[in-house]
Each structure stands twice: as structure tokens, then as C-alpha cells.
Design a protein that fits this description.
- The protein is 34% helix and 23% strand.
- It is of the alpha+beta class.
- It folds into two domains: 7-76, OB fold (Dihydrolipoamide Acetyltransferase, E2P) (Beta Barrel); 128-231, Up-down Bundle (de novo design (two linked rop proteins)).
- The longest helix has 16 residues, at 87-102.
- Mean pLDDT is 87; it is low at 225-231.
Length: 231
């Protein structure tokens, strides 16, 4: 990236570096997930002070040839009040951590950037939080190549039938099972993204199981924090 080339990004995470600097993990439109060094960002007189805010689209330039770039310019719209969250904050932090864990560094993902931007807009607009999360999780899995097969049963390769019951097998798909409460109609509604017609409990179990498998069984810090707060 040349010093004069502006890009757009969302902050996923930041951590202190030394006494005055910050290393920011961002998801950029043109370059995917990136690590940026914001030198002196913790100083009140710094050009970066107060700009690195999550859930707000930022404009930036940077320099460097290594994986850790140096932030040179940054801008944002301070009229955006997207930092005033309560329960939503933890859901958004969960999505940010998910992107940090699943996205490869330095690989352009503009379609996913647009999906993430749309997701934030829907949350800020007050759309149903759970359904918005489930939509994003399913689309994220599809875009990263972890998409589920909602078309056919895994053992006999037969078309999913609305009146039959199925259990979900991570990485493989759906197996006919009379012991499950998950119906073929549910699967078809998920495939067509009619998520409001599916039990939120079953839908969450499906996406969380699939994501847990993609993370190789590793727990997310944000999810543990949210569980402790709710208990």
C-alpha cells in the first residue's frame, strides 16, 4: 500500500504497545485483516488519539512492507454514535473476535467487508439482534468456505424433506434422525434465509456448533465474558 492510498476499515481489536503506542487489528476493504502500528496513539496530542473506535468505519493510510504496517493517517465521522451499546456491545465484540480468529491476514475480502458493514447498520437500526447475528454467521460461514449443505441428507444423499427430522453433524451436514426436533422444514427455511420461521434456540445451536468446529474447539473470550455477565 502506498502512503497516499486511502483504505476503509473497521477496528476489530487493539492492544497497547510500549507506553504510548497501540497495535490495532483492523478489517480493511482493500486488504482484509491487517495489523497497524499507531505510534503515540495514547498521547492526547497525537493525530490518532480518539480515532481508533470499534464499530465505526474508519479511513486510513499506512506504510510498510512487513505484516505490521505503520499507520500514517486516520479519519472517521464523529457524528456516528455507534459506541453507545449495552447488550449489543458484547454481540459485536463476539463478531469481531470471530473475524480475528477466522480471517487470514492480508487476503482481500471485500464481499465480507460489505457484509460486516451491513451487519453493523442493521444492529444500529434496531433490527432483531439474534436473527441479525444468525444471518451474519451463516453468510460468514459461506464466504469463508465453511458453508453447510442444506440440500441433501448425508447418508443416502436424498433431498431434505420438510416433514422428516434431522440432526446436524459438524463438517458433514444433516442426518435423518427421529430423535431430533430439527425438521426438514427448518433446514429449508435456513437455506432460503427465512430465519424468523425457525426456532431461535435450534438456529443458535446450529450456527454455534458449526462455528465451534471451524475454531477447532477453541472457546471465544467474548462469549465467556458474556456468560459471566449474564449469570
Amino acid at each position: 500500500m502506498s502512503p497516499s492510498e486511502w483504505d476503509e476499515c473497521f477496528l476489530l481489536h487493539q492492544r497497547p504497545y510500549g507506553e504510548t503506542s497501540v497495535i490495532a487489528e483492523v478489517f480493511s476493504r482493500k486488504n482484509g485483516k491487517m495489523s497497524l502500528m499507531a505510534r503515540g496513539a495514547k498521547k492526547p496530542k497525537s493525530n490518532f488519539f480518539g480515532y481508533l473506535a470499534p464499530f465505526t468505519k474508519l479511513k486510513f493510510t499506512c506504510t510498510g512492507r512487513s505484516d505490521l504496517k505503520t499507520l500514517t493517517n486516520i479519519d472517521r465521522d464523529f457524528s456516528d454514535s455507534s459506541n453507545n451499546f449495552t447488550k449489543k456491545s458484547y454481540s459485536l465484540l463476539y463478531i469481531n473476535e470471530l473475524l480475528i480468529r477466522l480471517l487470514p491476514k492480508g487476503a482481500a475480502q471485500e464481499d465480507l467487508f460489505i457484509l460486516y458493514e451491513s451487519f453493523l447498520s442493521q444492529v444500529l437500526a434496531g433490527n432483531d439482534l439474534e436473527l441479525t447475528l444468525r444471518h451474519f454467521e451463516l453468510d460468514l460461514l459461506d464466504m469463508l468456505g465453511y458453508g453447510l449443505d442444506f440440500e441433501s441428507e448425508i447418508d443416502r444423499n436424498e433431498e431434505i424433506e420438510p416433514m422428516k427430522k434431522y440432526s446436524f453433524i459438524p463438517e458433514r451436514g444433516f442426518r435423518e434422525s427421529n430423535e431430533s426436533n430439527f425438521t426438514g422444514e427448518d433446514i429449508i427455511n435456513i437455506r432460503t434465509r427465512n430465519l424468523s420461521k425457525v426456532s431461535k434456540k435450534y438456529l443458535k445451536h446450529l450456527t454455534q456448533t458449526a462455528i465451534h468446529f471451524c475454531l477447532d474447539g477453541r472457546d471465544l473470550v467474548s462469549r465467556d465474558i458474556f456468560k459471566r455477565i449474564r449469570s
